[in-house]
Each structure stands twice: as C-alpha cells, then as structure tokens.
Amino acid sequence: xxxxxxxxxxxxxxxxxxxxxxxxxxxxxxxxxxxxxxxxxxxxxxxxxxxxxxxxxxxxxxxxxxxxxxxxxxxxxxxxxxxxxxxxxxxxxxxxxxxxxxxxxxxxxxxxxxxxxxxxxxxxxxxxxxxxxxxxxxxxxxxxxxxxxxxxxxxxxxxxxxxxxxxxxxxxxxxxxxx
Length: 179
Description:
Number of domains: 2
Structural class: mainly alpha
Strand content: under 5%
Helix content: 55-70%
Number of helices: 6
Order of helices and strands: EEHHHHHH
Radius of gyration: 19 Å
Distance between the termini: 42 Å
C-alpha cells in the first residue's frame, strides 16, 4: 500500500512513519539541508558538551564515575543539541534577514540581499551544527572555510563576518531567551 500526503510529493510506503521528521516534504525541505543533517550537528555538539560536563562531575568518583558521568552527560547533551538543531528553521531565518538586512550598519547603501545571503546562511548553518558553541570559538574555522562555503558570493570573510555573526547570534539569543 502506498499513501501520498496531500499537497506534497512525499510518498510513504507501508510501515513508514509519515510523521518522521527526516521525511523530506515542502514543509521541512529547505535549501540549507534536511532535518537529519541539522540533527547530527546538534547532537554532536550536545554530546560533546554533555559528556565533558558529565565526566567532570563524575570524575570526583574516580575513573568509573567519570566514564558513567560522560555517558549520562553525553545522552542528556545529545538530546539538548538535537532539540536546538530541530528548532532552527533556515527558511524562516532567511526570510527574517531578507526583510531586515538593510537595517544593519555593516550593509553598504543600495546593496542587494543576494550579496549577503550566503553569509547569513553560513551563520545559520554554523549555529545549527554547533548550537552550544560561541561564535568567537568557531570563527577561525568559519574564516578558513568561507572560501568553499560562499559559493558565488563576492564577499571576503572580513565583509561576510558580521552577517554570519548576526545570523548565529540571533539564533543563540532566541535559544537563551525563548519568546
């Protein structure tokens, strides 16, 4: 049996879960990647942070306590990272920046959004992949990888940096201070 979800082209086979967030449909498919990609990044960041915290706490009980603490902390951190990554909607973020980019001090007069779109996307992706990191800690890597990530953009990292930081900081701020 094959069921087709109304108004989408997503096809589900029997025994598939149509509510699976990894299913690509217009509501969840966006230019910046699927739910699975953002989840992997969020989980990795969460596990690392949670494992470090758990190991530190468990370390007071000796090596076995550190291992147990890292495992428990990693599980909790992974869940947190996944939840944060899933809560980011790159399409909504791009719409926000398209409507608000001209208000930013670093945007020269009469500059089109298309010029800065890759930088905003890069900031969103950086946050999705590292939701528990600080932009400053990621910046050396972001700077080094901007040449490959920018696509057709004519911006150098020094020009793109503030837009990427803005996109990252907006998401970070929204997670720390939910509306």
